[in-house]
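Bumping with the actual sequence this time:
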Amino acid sequence: MVKQIDDRWACFVQIEENGACIQVKRDEVPGYLAKGNLMWIDILDPTAEDTGWLEEVFDFHTLALSDVLNNDVQPKQETYDDILFTVFAGVNFSPNEYVFDTVNLNLFLSTQYLVTAHCHPLKTVNTVKTMVKTQAHVLSKGTDHVYYHLLDGLVDRYVTAIDKMEDDIEDLEEAVFEGLEEKIQETLFELKRHAAHAKRSLRPKKEALRVLVNRELPQITDETRTHLRDVLDHVSGSIDHLEAHRELLNSLMDSYMSRISNKMNRVMEMLTIIATIMLPLSVITGVFGMNFRYIPGLDSHIGFWVLMLFMGALATGMILVFRKKGIL
């Protein structure tokens, strides 16, 4: 059990002002908490035992702890006494797989400590862990500064995904207008689905960030609030880009369907021309194929060739007429 806790828990403590922070074990946290040291605790795949420990040591509200164990909670923000509790959905975007793997990051913020919990690994959290280990000022500036880096990193993942989507839309646009029909419709619907999913995911983040920016929260300094305003601008810009992507995808879908319709019309036009040419020839062959004993020309040695010559001349004449009128 101890080894499992050490594997899932990452506890960073600021030893002295503007000094390097150290990583400690979970059992050492209460001692540093009593001393007033700044700290960040991250928990991967939290269990009921973990939330029980958090309730005992930090006195977190049971409702907030129940949300930690549920990855389906919608992004939100609540205040419990001097604790700011935030649920912020992150995305582990992989350009090679093109899958929006949404994972909730639960954050408990106070002026002394930041506690985060998530049920699956997040690339953003790992990046900020590296920053805290290698850059002493990250945690020494305050727990709200680490809080900002986490939210900023989560939003940047969406920006990366949207940029990749924009590249794919440009490639798709070239394919549509160059007439490369392979899997275009499937790709169009896939991109529209991803754009809608990303937009639905970003909207509640915009509201949550607006609250952080506009409300006077004791857990967040004015400097961090300024940084969060920049994150809010990124979210707003990303939503605008997604809306533009949606309109462009709808336009590409219309263009694609128009190309398919025009192609079908050309095929039907060609089939109509062939049927029109064959109609008089079929009438002629039908007449001479009737079961009468006496039909003029049947006994002639050159009757068949004369008929073939006439039918060929008739078909050629019709083709020339069609070309003159611009039909062919």
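The tokens above came from a reply further down the thread. The two ends are 81 Å apart (CA to CA).
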